[in-house]
Amino acid sequence: MAGAKRKYIEAAYELLVRDGLEGVSIRKVADEVGCSSTALYRHFPDISMLVAVASIRFLRDYIEDARVLSKVDLNPLELNLQLWECLAYYSFRNADIYDNMFYGDGADELYGEAVKEYFAQYPEDLEGLKDFMLDMFTNATIAERDGILLNRAAEQGMLSAESAEYLCKLDSYLFRGVLADVRGRDLDESGFRDITREFMQLIIRSYTTQLEEGYSILVVSPDFVADSSRHEVEARASYRVQIQTIPCNQAKKEKTRASA
After folding, report:
1. For residues 33 and 209, what is the distance between their CA atoms, to the nearest angstrom?
2. Which of 21, 87, 74 lies closest to 52 in space, CA to CA?
3. In a 3-state reduction of DSSP, which class is residue 40?
4. How confident is the model at residue 196 (pLDDT cuts 50, 70, 90)?
5. pLDDT for position 246
6. Which string of DSSP letters, residue by residue, matches 68-125?
7. Is the pLDDT of residue 1 over 80?
8. What angle do CA 9, 106, 131 make, to 5 degrees?
9. 10-32, pLDDT tens digit by residue?
10. Which of 71, 150, 196, 233 lies at a C-alpha separation of 20 to 30 Å from 223?
């Protein structure tokens, strides 16, 4: 039974890759697998749930990058910014899929159910993730993941609680806006990188204005390259973000300059 469900998920995923959201139907998935629609309905109540579960597979490269980052000594803000960069890079390349996954009709309920169903079938995709990182990917939405790390930064004195709440809302609004803007645009690899870079510059600028005195964001780009042992992830240069402690008088100057 479990093997059959994986076949349906993988067939739906391949249709999403090849034909997009409009190219997936119960009939087409059944034809790809070589079964009847009735057999498929025994595993999935409708096409929306099947698409939702299959869409989680698009997160594999993002999770692989998170696995790499989990082995690096990063504070909560560094990790959060790196994860945003990874998510932006992959999601902007498949904007229709990600927009539907996170913000489509019924997404609030479907996403949580789809995550549980997908990882029940593919627990190997979570190998190497531990503790709170594992919990974030299995039990939290993108906004909740963002909030977890921002609140950790607040607990460490990098942000105020109010700033953490403000940045969480701003991050979500900005990500959703850029994702919607990218949908349907015919971009090459350079274009996707440029949009990812622009998104990160906006995110980093907003973080800089909210840091507590004594902290400053240093961005060194590029020197982090995604490396994968299980998936063929295209190597890409990424932001390497560091949070530096600086003298308070200099911090005031930095904050004023960022707000100008």
Report:
1. 53
2. 21
3. helix
4. very high
5. 67
6. HHTTS---HHHHHHHHHHHHHHHHHHTHHHHHHHHHSTTHHHHHHHHHHHHHHH-GGG
7. no
8. 65
9. 999 999 999 999 999 999 999 99
10. 150
